[in-house]
Design goal:
The complex is a heterodimer of chains A (349) and B (285). Chain A is α+β, with helices and mostly antiparallel strands. Helices cover 38% and strands 21% of the residues of chain A. In chain A, helix 8 crosses helix 14 and helix 9 crosses helix 11. The longest helix of chain A has 18 residues. Chain A is globular, with a radius of gyration of 22 Å. In chain B, the strands form three sheets. In chain B, strands 10-9-8-7-11-12-15 form a seven-stranded mixed sheet, sandwiched between helices. Chain B is built from six helices and 15 strands. The chains are: A alpha+beta (349), B alpha/beta (285). At the A-B interface, strand 4, strand 5, strand 11, strand 12 and helix 11 of A face strand 4 and strand 13 of B.
Chain lengths: 349, 285
C-alpha cells in the first residue's frame, strides 16, 4: 500500500509529538532567548519551541559545522610518539520548525562538503540529522528568499515540511527518513484531506505574492561579477564601508571558510577547525609575507565573487545566497547582499 | 589548453584531516634558513607524488603547513622536503632531526604534467626556494634522461649563501644536454658568476626554433610577470608554460577556502597552472 505524501496534525498533538522527538534525539528548534530574540537552539520541552517566530538570529550552520570543531585529538604515548584519533560527532539531531531559507542553507552546505573528497566530519553530522522545515507565511523586513529561490515554500530538501493552516499543521513528506518519523508517531498524524492540501496550495500562491516586494537582483549581479564588469571604484567604495568584523561570514548560512588551530597541554592536544572570514587581512597572508589580497577592495570583491559568480555557481549548482537577510541586520557598513547586488546592477554607488 | 584534472590521494575515507605518522630519516641544513628533510612513511611505502605536488606537514601542537615535495618520484622508500624557516611551525620543524616524527597528509594538488615535457626541450626557471619543487622536476628528467630533450635551468637567488643544492647543480651541469645557469641579484664578495635578476639569464640561452619547448616556473610572485614576458618573447606559447602558485592553504582538499582564485582552488586545481589559465585570473600573481 502506498503511503500518502501529506498528513495533518492538530496543534495539541503537535506538542505531544515534539515531546516524543525530544525523547529520541537532540531537538534543535527556534527558541526565544533573553531580550526576545529567537535563535535555533536545543529545546528540552515542547513548550520551548517558538512556533510563531519570524526568523532566527543564527542559521543552523553552527550545529553541523561548529565555529570550533575538533578534527582530531592526540595523546603522547611514551617515547613512541603519538596516538591520533579523529573525532566525529554522531549525535542524532532533529532540526524542527526550520525556516525554508535556513534549510536551503543546509542544502548548500551539503553541496560544499559532499564534493569530492567528502568531508567526513560534516557528513557524519548530516547523516545523523533530520530536517523538519516550517513554511513562511509572513515576510520579515530583511528577507528575500523568493529572489534566491530558497523559500518561502520548498519543493524538496526537507525530510518533513510543516505548514501552519488555521487549526492544524499540514505535514508533507520529503524523504523516507521523514516517513519513518510519521510511522513512529502512532495515532498522532492522519492522512491529509484534499481540501487541506488545496488550502496549502492556495496559501503558497498568496504568500508568494506577498513576498514579491522584497528584491535582490541576482541575475544582473551574477552577470557583471562573472565577466568582471564591476568598476574598481565600486569595490573600493564598498571596502571603505567594511569594518573587517567578519560578521557577514559568521551569520551567513552558506559561508564555510575555516582555518585550523592546534591546542596542546601536557601529553595531549587537539586540532580544531575554526570559522574564518575572507574579509580578514591575514586570510591570504603567506609565510613569505606576500599577500595576494592585501587590499580590502580585493577581499570584498573575492567575497562577492564567491557568492555570485558563475564560476562558483556552476560547481555548487546555485549562487551562494539563500536570502535570509542576516547580513542586512549584521553589516554596519551596509555591504549586505541586496544593497551590493543593487549597486552592482547599477554599476555605480 | 590542458584541462584541469583534480587528483586526490587514495586514503581511508575517514582520513581526510588525519595525518600519517612519518619518521625523519635524515636532515641537513642547506643554508642558514633552509633545511632538507628525508622522510619515511609507515612501512617505507612511497608517497606516490608527481613533481610539483605538495604535502601538509603536521607538527602537533603547532599546526600544519603546505610544503612542496623536493625529491623525484623515482626516489624509493622516502621523500624529501626542503623547508625554509619562516614562522612558528617551520621554526619548530628546523629543530627536528633523524628519528623524529612528523605528520604527513597528501600528496595534494595537480603537479607538473611531466608527460608534456617528454621529447621536448625543458626550460626550468627557479627563484629562491622555488628550486625546491623544481628539483623534483629536474630529477625526474635526469632519472630517465633520454626521454627528454635539452634541459636549461635558470636559477636566481638574492645572494650566494641562499643557493640551494649547490653540489647537485654542479653534478647536473656535467651532462652537456643540461645547461645550468645561476645568478644572484646583487654583486657579492667571492661571487664570480652572473649578477642580476633571473631574467638576465635569458640572453644566455639559445632555443632551437625547430624544437618544442616547455617551461616550468616556480619562484616569488614578483618574478612571474617578468619571466612570463621573457618566455613570450622566446615564442613559447602560453599553454607550454607551467607556473606553480603559492597560496596560504589550510586543508589541501578544496574545503577551507583560503586558496581560491576566481573559481579555482590552488590546492586541487593547481598549484600548477598554464600561462593560458593564469591569463584568465586577475588576481593570480
Amino acid at each position: 500500500m502506498s503511503q500518502p505524501a501529506a498528513y495533518v496534525i492538530t496543534r495539541p498533538r503537535l506538542a505531544e509529538w515534539v515531546g516524543k522527538l525530544i525523547g529520541r534525539a537532540q531537538v534543535i528548534a527556534p527558541r526565544r532567548a533573553q531580550g526576545g530574540d529567537v535563535a535555533y537552539d536545543i529545546v528540552e520541552t515542547p513548550d520551548q519551541v517558538a512556533w510563531d517566530y519570524s526568523t532566527s538570529i543564527n542559521p543552523l550552520k553552527r550545529f553541523l559545522f561548529p565555529q570550533g570543531d575538533e578534527l582530531l585529538r592526540w595523546q603522547r604515548a611514551g617515547d613512541d610518539g603519538l596516538q591520533l584519533e579523529p573525532t566525529y560527532d554522531e549525535t542524532d539531531r532533529i532540526f524542527l520548525a526550520v525556516r525554508s531559507c535556513d534549510l536551503s542553507g543546509v542544502l548548500f552546505l551539503d553541496r560544499v562538503f559532499s564534493r569530492e573528497p567528502e568531508d567526513v566530519y560534516y557528513m557524519t553530522r548530516r547523516q545523523h540529522s533530520t530536517l523538519i522545515s516550517l513554511t513562511c507565511s509572513e515576510p520579515v523586513e530583511d528577507c528575500f528568499c523568493v529572489c534566491a529561490d530558497a523559500g518561502p515554500f520548498l519543493e524538496t530538501g526537507f525530510d518533513l515540511q510543516l505548514t501552519a493552516l488555521s487549526d492544524d499543521y499540514l505535514v508533507e513528506v520529503g524523504t523516507e527518513k521523514g516517513q519513518e518519523l510519521i510511522n513512529q508517531a502512532e495515532g498522532l498524524f492522519a492522512p491529509a484531506p484534499d481540501e487541506l492540501i488545496q488550502a496549502r496550495r492556495d496559501l503558497e500562491k498568496e504568500v508568494e505574492a506577498r513576498f514579491a516586494e522584497h528584491k535582490s537582483y541576482f541575475a544582473a549581479a551574477l552577470r557583471k561579477v562573472t565577466f568582471d564588469r564591476v568598476p574598481d571604484e565600486l569595490w573600493e567604495e564598498m571596502a571603505d564601508r567594511c569594518l573587517e568584523c567578519g560578521g557577514c561570514s559568521f551569520v551567513c548560512p552558506t559561508c564555510t571558510c575555516f582555518l585550523t588551530a592546534d591546542w596542546q597541554s601536557e601529553g595531549e592536544g587537539h586540532r580544531d577547525r575554526l570559522w574564518d572570514s575572507c574579509l580578514y587581512s591575514c586570510y591570504t597572508l603567506e609565510a613569505s609575507g606576500h599577500n595576494p589580497r592585501a587590499q580590502r577592495r580585493d577581499r570584498v570583491k573575492a567575497r562577492f565573487f564567491h557568492k555570485l559568480s558563475y564560476q562558483f555557481a556552476k560547481e555548487l549548482e546555485t549562487h551562494g545566497c539563500v536570502g535570509c537577510g542576516r547580513c542586512i541586520a549584521t553589516c554596519l557598513g551596509s555591504n549586505d547582499m541586496p544593497t551590493v547586488t543593487a549597486r552592482i546592477r547599477r554599476g555605480a554607488i | 589548453m590542458t584541462t584541469v584534472e583534480r587528483r586526490f590521494p587514495e586514503q581511508r575515507p575517514d582520513a581526510l584531516f588525519v595525518p600519517e605518522m612519518a619518521t625523519i630519516k635524515g636532515a641537513a641544513n642547506l643554508t642558514a634558513q633552509d633545511r632538507l628533510f628525508d622522510i619515511e612513511l609507515p612501512g617505507g611505502k612511497n608517497l606516490g607524488h608527481k613533481p610539483g605536488q605538495f604535502v601538509e606537514v603536521s607538527m602537533y601542537g603547532f599546526g600544519e603547513a603546505p610544503i612542496s615535495v623536493s625529491s623525484s618520484p623515482a626516489q624509493d622508500g622516502s621523500f624529501e622536503l626542503c623547508v625554509r624557516k619562516l614562522g612558528g611551525l617551520t621554526g619548530k620543524l628546523h629543530t627536528l632531526g633523524e628519528g623524529d616524527a612528523v605528520g604527513i597528509r597528501g600528496p595534494f594538488g595537480n603537479g607538473f604534467p611531466m608527460e608534456d615535457f617528454e621529447g621536448t626541450d625543458c626550460l626550468i626557471v627557479a627563484g629562491g626556494i622555488g628550486m625546491a619543487p623544481l628539483r623534483s622536476v629536474v630529477n625526474t628528467i635526469l632519472a630517465d634522461r633520454d626521454k627528454y630533450g635539452r634541459m636549461m635551468l635558470l636559477y636566481g637567488n638574492r645572494n650566494p649563501d641562499d643557493i640551494l643544492f649547490k653540489d647537485e647543480l654542479k653534478a647536473w651541469a656535467e651532462d652537456d644536454r643540461n645547461q645550468i645557469l645561476v645568478t644572484i641579484d646583487r654583486p657579492a664578495e667571492g661571487w664570480a658568476g652572473n649578477v642580476g635578476v633571473v631574467t638576465t639569464l635569458f640572453e644566455q640561452i639559445a632555443l632551437d626554433p625547430s624544437r618544442r619547448v616547455v617551461a616550468a616556473v616556480v619562484g616569488p610572485p614578483v618574478m612571474y610577470r617578468f619571466v612570463y614576458a621573457e618566455l613570450t618573447m622566446k615564442h613559447i606559447p602560453d599553454d607550454h608554460i607551467y607556473f606553480s602558485l603559492e597560496r596560504r592553504m589550510k586543508c589541501g582538499v578544496g574545503k577551507c577556502g583560503h586558496c581560491q582564485i576566481e573559481g579555482k582552488y590552488v590546492c586541487i586545481d593547481g598549484p600548477v597552472f598554464t600561462g593560458a589559465e593564469l591569463g584568465q585570473f586577475r588576481e593570480s600573481i
